[in-house]
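Sequence, C-alpha cells passed on for absentees:
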Amino acid sequence: MTVVNENYLKLPGSYLFAEIARRVKAFKDKNPSADIISLGIGDVTQPLAPVVIKALHKAVDEMADASTFRGYGPEQGYDFLREKIVKTVYHAHGADIAPDEIFVSDGAKSDCGNIQEIFGTDNIIAITDPVYPVYLDTNVMAGRTGGYDETKGIFSNVVYMPCTADNNFVPKIPKQHVDMIYICCPNNPTGTTLTREQLAKWIEYARQNDAVILYDAAYAYYITEADIPRTIYEIHGARDVAIEFRSFSKTAGFTGMRCGYTVIPKTVFARTKAGEKQALNPLWNRRHTTKFNGTAYIVQRAAEAVVTEQGQKEIMQTINYYMDNARIIREGLDGAGIEYFGGINAPYIWLKTPNDMKSWDFFDKLLSEANIVGTPGAGFGPSGEGYFRLTAFGDKENTKRAVKRIKTKLTL
C-alpha cells in the first residue's frame, strides 16, 4: 500500500495566502461591483527597470542565433552573475564572500524552504513569532517539528521567539540550545529590523552553540537607517555561522521572472551524528545540482543588469516609489488613529488591530467596509494575533485611495 508523508497532515488549515484568496473570491461573488484594492500579498506592481528590459531583449536575441544560443548552464549560476553579485552586494559593504559561495536559484522562497533538506531531522529549530510561513511549514513537512497543539497554535519541537510591541519586535535569545535559527531582517511581516549590535549577539550565540543562522535578507535594499546591516556578513564571525538568502523579486520587480540566490560560506559547518565537522557548502551544492537545472539564461542576464552601476540606480527609483507608498500608508494610519510599526526599513506596515479585534475579523471588516485586502497577523503565528499587515507594493494612486477609505469608510 502506498502511504503518504503524514507530516503534511500536521499542517493546520490551508496556506495563508490561499485562504485570503478564497475569502476575497467569496466576497467578490457576492459583491461583483466592489472595487477591491489589495494591500495584502506582497507582489510588486511597477515595471522592470529599463536596463533590465534591455538586457532581456539582448539575451533573447542571443537565443535566436546558433552561435550565441545557450542550453543548460551551470546549476550554481553563471559566473558573470555570481561575480557581479560579489562585487556589488558584498564587497561594497566590506563582506568577504567569494563567487563559489553563491548559488543562483529561482527565488529566495524556494531556497528558504529547501535549505532544511541538508540538516538532520533531529535538529531543534527556532523561529521568530510571527514568522514567514515557509520557514515553519517546510520543517513541518520534513518531520522536524513534532506534534501540533491546536489550542496554543504551536508545534512541540519548535522554539518560538515572540516578537511583539512589548519587546520592540526583538526576539530574545533562547535560554535552551537550538540548532537552526531563522531570522528575517528586515522582517516580513512586521517590517521591523535588528541593529548591528543585536545581530552580533545572535552570531555569538550561534558560535557558542554550534548553531546555524538562516538569514533571510530579501528586503535588504529597503533599509534606510545607518545602523541596520545590509548583509549579515558585515558582522564579524557571521561567515562561520550564517547562511544568507537574497532575492531579486522585491528588489528589482522579478516576482514574475523568478531569480534569487543563497550564500553559503565555505566556513559554515555542522556536524555528523558521530561529531565530525561537515561543511555545508558542498552539501548544498550536491542538493542544488541534483534537484535544480539552473535559472534561465535570459533571467540571469536580466539579474546581471540589476547589479550593474546603472541597474542599481534604476531599481532604487522603484524602491523609493514603494517606500513613498509606505509613508502614505503610515501617515494615513496616523490620521485614522491606528497604531502601527515598520514601514521605515521595509515595505511592510504592521498595524495593531483596533479594539483588540481578532486579525481575521479585522480582515473581513476591512474587506467589507473599505473593500481593501490585507493580511491577518494570525496567519504568521500565535504572536501575530491582534496585528495586521499592509504592503506598500501597490501603485501610488491605489495606495492613496486605500488610505482615504481607511480614514473615511472604516468604522473603528
Q: What stands out?
A: The mean pLDDT is 96.
